[in-house]
Amino acid sequence: MDDLVNALLNGSRRAVARLLTWVSDESPQASPILTALFPHTGKAWVIGITGAPGTGKSSLVNCLAKAYRAQNLLVGIIAVDPTSPFTGGAILGDRIRMRDLSGDSGVFIRSMATRGSLGGLARTTRDAIRVLDAAGFDIILVETVGAGQSEVDIVRTAHTTLVIEAPGLGDEVQAIKAGILEIADVLVVNKADRPGAHKTVSALRMMLDIGHPASRTQMTAHHGQLLEVKTPETPHSDEPIWIPPVLETIATDEKGVAELVSAIQKHREFIQSQGLSAPLERQRIEIELHERLREALIQQLLESTSPEYVMDVINQVQNRQLDPQSAVTKILANHKQMVS
Amino acid sequence: MDDLVNALLNGSRRAVARLLTWVSDESPQASPILTALFPHTGKAWVIGITGAPGTGKSSLVNCLAKAYRAQNLLVGIIAVDPTSPFTGGAILGDRIRMRDLSGDSGVFIRSMATRGSLGGLARTTRDAIRVLDAAGFDIILVETVGAGQSEVDIVRTAHTTLVIEAPGLGDEVQAIKAGILEIADVLVVNKADRPGAHKTVSALRMMLDIGHPASRTQMTAHHGQLLEVKTPETPHSDEPIWIPPVLETIATDEKGVAELVSAIQKHREFIQSQGLSAPLERQRIEIELHERLREALIQQLLESTSPEYVMDVINQVQNRQLDPQSAVTKILANHKQMVS
C-alpha cells in the first residue's frame, strides 16, 4: 500500500490508473489509500464543465486541456457520465477524447459512470479528483452531461463552474438556461459561428441581469445542510461580487479558448483575493460529509433489519394497509430496537 | 381535514390544487391527508415521459392528454422540473401547456420543482401522483427534462416509460441514447419530418437489438436495494419479453399519436397479462421506502448532533487532519452515543 501511495505522490501514471479504477469500482482497497493521500490534496484547481447535450462540451474540454498544457500545467480530465444508471458503464469512452491528447503524459483522462446508487457518483467523482490532485495534476477538468442533479454535483465539487450553451437548441433549452445559469461562474456560448449565437449571448446576459446570481458564496450557502445554514448572508453593498462573464467560443476551430482560460483565471483570482477559498471549501466539505453520512446511515439500517421484516412491511404497503410514510416510521422503530 | 379528503375523493379540482401545493411545498399538513388517501390509490396508469431537451416532450404530452381525453379518461399532468435546484421554482410554467388544454376540467396540470434536497423531488412526485390517483384521474403523465437522475426517478415511479428522441441533435445525444434506451418501454422519435428521422429510428432499433433491454422486470430488479435483490431472474426462454417499439411522431401536427397511445396500451396489457403488475409494484414500493428511509435517517442524525460538533469535525477536515471517510465514522459514533 505504501508503495502505491508513494508512486502516486510521485505522479506515476500506473498508480493513478490503478487507484482511479478502484475508486470508480468503489473497491474497499481504495479507502486506506485515500486516507493516506488526503493530507496531500487541496492544491489543484477544479473546473466543472456542464451544459445540455449537443453544446460541444467535450471539444471545449479538449481545447482547455491543450491550453493548460501549453502553460506547462498537468491536466486531469474526469468525464462523468450519469446517463447509464443501469449498466454502470461510461458511454462516452476515453477513446473519443484521446485523439487530440494522446501521447501527452501531462494529461490524464478517465471516464466515470454511476453504479446506480444515489450519491455514489458524487462520492466517486470527489475521490477521483483527490487522486489526481495528490498525484500533482494542477488543473482538473470535470465534465458532465446533464440537466439535473449532475450539475448540482459539479457545483458542489468544482472551484469554477462553466456552463456551456449553444445557439439554436430550441425553446426548451432556453428555459433550462434559467436553471443552470445560477450555477455558472463562467458562461460559454460554444458553436458561436452558428446562426443565432449573438442572440443567445444577449439572452444570457439579460437573464444574468434579471437573475443576479452574484457570487458563489451566496449560492453555495443554500446547501449548508449539516449546519443548517439557511439564510445566506447578503453581501455588503460595497463588497465586490462576481458577475459571470458570457463568452463565445468555436471549440472545433479553437477560437475563444484563450479568453475562456483568462476568464477562469480571473474567477480564481476573485475567489482568492476576496478570501472566499476557505469558506467555499468549508461548504464543499460540509456537503460531502452530509452525502457520505446519508450513505452510511442507510447501510447501518440495512445491516440491522432482516429482509423478512422489510418484506412484511412491503406487503402491508402493497395491500394498502400501511402508507409509505407510516411504513418508514415502523422500520425506523424496529431499527432503533435492533441496535439498542 | 376529513372535508378535504372527501372533496378530493369526489374529484374536487380545488381540493386537488390545494393538496398538490402542500405536497410540492413539502408542508406537514399534507402528511395525514396522504395517509388517509393512500387506500384509495393504485388505480391510475402512470406514464413517464423523458428525453433530452429539444425533443418536443411537452408537445407530445399535450397530444397524449388530448388523445386520452377523447377516450373520456381523466388526465393528470405532472411536469417535473429538476433544472433549478437553487431557486426551487418550476421553470416551464403551467401556462405554456395550458393553451391547448385550458378550459377542459378533465385535465389537471401541475409543474413541480425540487426544493434542492436529494430525493425530495422523487418523493413529492410520488405523492403528487397519489393525489391525482385518489382524485380519480385515470391517466397520469409525468414529464421530466433530463439526462440523468431524473430519468431514473421516472422509471421508479411510472408504469410505462416513454423515451423521446429527435433527429439531428448531434453525436452526443446519440451517445446518451444508449443510456436512456435501457429505461424505455416505448421509444418515440418525435419531429419525424426532420431530416435524418429514419436514420435515427434505424439506429435506435439497432441499439435495441444490441442492448436487449428486455422486460422491465429485469431492469427494475437491479434497484431492489432494501431486499438486496442483486441478480435479476433470467426469464425462461419461452417467457415472452417486452421489446420496446420505436415509433415516429410529429407532435406539432398530432401525427403518430394514435399509434403511440396504442403502443402504451399494449405495454399495459403486457404487464397485466404476464402477471407483472404486482411484482413491479413491489419493487416501486421497495425503492420508495429506501429513499424515504434515507431522508428520515439523516434527519434523525441532524437532530442528535450539535452544530458545534459538526463544525469542529469540518475544521479538522479542512486542516487535513481528518479525511472525509474518517470524519463520517466519527460523526456516526457520536450520533450513536447521543441516541443511546
What does this structure look like?
Two copies of one chain form a homodimer. The longest helix of chain A is centred in the last third of the chain and has 28 residues. The first copy, chain A, has two domains: 238 residues, P-loop containing nucleotide triphosphate hydrolases (Rossmann fold), CATH 3.40.50; 35 residues. In chain A, 53% of the residues lie in helices and 12% in strands. In chain A, strands 3-2-4-1-5-6-7 form a seven-stranded parallel beta sheet, sandwiched between helices. Chain A starts with a helix and ends with a helix. With 340 residues, the first copy, chain A, is of the alpha/beta class. In chain A, strand 5, helix 8 and strand 6 form a beta-alpha-beta unit. Chains A and B meet through helix 3, helix 7, helix 8, helix 12 and helix 13 of A and helix 3, helix 7, helix 8, helix 12 and helix 13 of B.
Task: Provide the descriptors you would attach to this structure in a database record.
globular; 14 helices; 340 residues; alpha/beta; 2 domains; Rossmann fold; 12% strand; seven-stranded parallel sheet; homodimer
